[in-house]
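User: My advisor, Dr. K., asked me to get a structural model of this assembly before our group meeting. I'm new to this, so sorry if the format is off. These are the inputs:
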Amino acid sequence: MPRSGAEARRRLREAALELYLERGFDQTTAAEIAARAGVNERTFFRHFPDKREVLFDGDGDLRAALAQAVAEAPDGLEPFAVLLHAFRRSAQELENTRPYSEPRWKVIAATPALRERELAKHAWLVEAVAEALRRRGTAAGVADLAARTGWAAYQHAVQAWVDEPAQGLSVHLERAFDELRALSSTAPPGPDRTPPN
Amino acid sequence: MPRSGAEARRRLREAALELYLERGFDQTTAAEIAARAGVNERTFFRHFPDKREVLFDGDGDLRAALAQAVAEAPDGLEPFAVLLHAFRRSAQELENTRPYSEPRWKVIAATPALRERELAKHAWLVEAVAEALRRRGTAAGVADLAARTGWAAYQHAVQAWVDEPAQGLSVHLERAFDELRALSSTAPPGPDRTPPN
DNA sequence: CCCCGTTGTGTCAGTAACTGGCACTACGTA
DNA sequence: TACGTAGTGCCAGTTACTGACACAACGGGG
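Assistant: The format is fine. Below is the predicted structure of the whole assembly, which you can bring to the meeting.
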């Protein structure tokens, strides 16, 4: 009975998260998730290509939102300022939905296979950010470098915020970019040649 | 016959790479790899925890080399200068072994599951770099930020080098760090507040 | 020289992630 | 009311991986 499709998908997401939390990702079978969601195991794999992806269903929207935030940044901004603009929006969303997202983070952090998938998703987001920068006219090479390093700073800030939520994520974000400026301003341009060994 | 153990392992690495190149990762079974290496399928999984890991066997050494290069950088250098020192060494190794490594890169680039694993390995390397920085006295937060962003710049350089090998990797590496300095020096410290929506 | 602990391997049975194919059911629409 | 479509159940099959047990080669000590 194909009542809604989207409904089954929602229940599958829910059931998967619950079970992953209760008994761990590795100790949970796709059949169990499907059973709790009231559908067949086969149906699970029709909605999600694999057992991990069920936890990353919202990443498509996130990617779109990120690209849009980059596109909507005021004209004339330098690449890092554009990224700061976009990351602030994304960070706002993170702060708002933290209570809902936290159990999900917990499962991912505890499961190597899920952390792998998360890194892959991040790479996918970085590509979107780089492309959005290019659309604004940023040179391809610079866009790639800015997206990669800017994302790295963002992730550092998120980690710091998770460890120390007292200060808002936006505070950590500003600090990360400030510290990055301090770090890179000290690097000597000259090569320090070491003898080849 | 446990002639050597390390020998079987070497043959397994070799056979796996060959088969992944010939017919693709997904179209290759562990049993086939084992057969070509002259051992049992079970033996494959005794040497490698899964089908992907067989392509990343050298990453332990790389991690150690990277940590050592960070440790051996001259005293008194700022974090990014230390990283530049370490990445130059790593880059030298990359340039030297490129012909041997290229087929491996090709397989990884063509296989999503392998790119996932590669990203996980990179995260593991970044952790090692951050820890090595901390051992030198760099504050934990700064070490994490520097390792993440420095690695991002390094990977940008590697990508640029793969796309355009005419200039050496070290040239791309210097340029990446220079461009990163230029990028981050332009970011405005003040927050540009956008109304919450 | 033989005994023995260690290490690497082969074999077998089993679990579970996924996939393809086919039939069926609900639903919107002409 | 007939029909196309989307979502689902069921079944059979492949393959990644695991645990258990037995066996073979090697090394050293008596």
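One thing worth pointing out at the meeting: Chain B is about 75% helix and 0% strand.

User: Perfect, thanks a lot.
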